[in-house]
Design brief:
alpha+beta; OB fold (Dihydrolipoamide Acetyltransferase, E2P); 5-stranded mixed beta barrel; 3 helices; 5 strands; about 45% helix
């Protein structure tokens, strides 16, 4: 009956992997399958746990990086969420200083600040480019396109 726990854990990790698509839970599911195999071979519970943990760790640190490298060779990485905003054009809605301001990025209003501490304030209506995102603040620089 112990193999059901291992198979159940593998199925749970498989479902979590489908939600995350990060290849972490898939490696943990592989470890759970290895634990089930150890159970089938008659290993005691402590050895099943060791086999599952070692297999999962090997898969996480050896197989996963190799799989991610191969995947990124074949498919372009598409940035999402805040990472997708870096490099985009925006418009200053208020004066943007190193202390703060407001910009509009693709229809959304963001709090913003100037990327360079010594830079001159950016006036309202001026085009800017998003340099990075710090939490909920867009760090911007004056756009080269005027």
């Amino acid at each position: 009956m112990g193999w059901l726990w291992w198979v159940g854990a593998a199925l749970l990790f498989g479902i979590l992997e489908m939600a995350s698509l990060d290849l972490v839970f898939a490696m943990l599911a592989g470890g759970a399958v290895a634990g089930a195999v150890a159970y089938a071979l008659g290993a005691p519970v402590w050895l099943q746990c060791v086999v599952a943990a070692v297999c999962a760790l090997l898969m996480l640190f050896v197989l996963r990086p190799w799989l991610l490298h191969r995947l990124r060779e074949r498919v372009d990485l598409v940035e999402t969420n805040a990472a997708a905003l870096v490099g985009r054009e925006a418009v200053a809605l208020s004066t943007v200083t190193p202390e703060g301001g407001r910009v509009k990025i693709g229809g959304e209003v963001w709090s913003a600040r100037v990327a360079d501490e010594g830079a001159a304030p950016i006036p309202p209506g001026a085009p800017v480019r998003v340099a990075r995102i710090d939490g909920a603040t867009a760090v911007v620089a004056p756009s080269l396109e005027v």
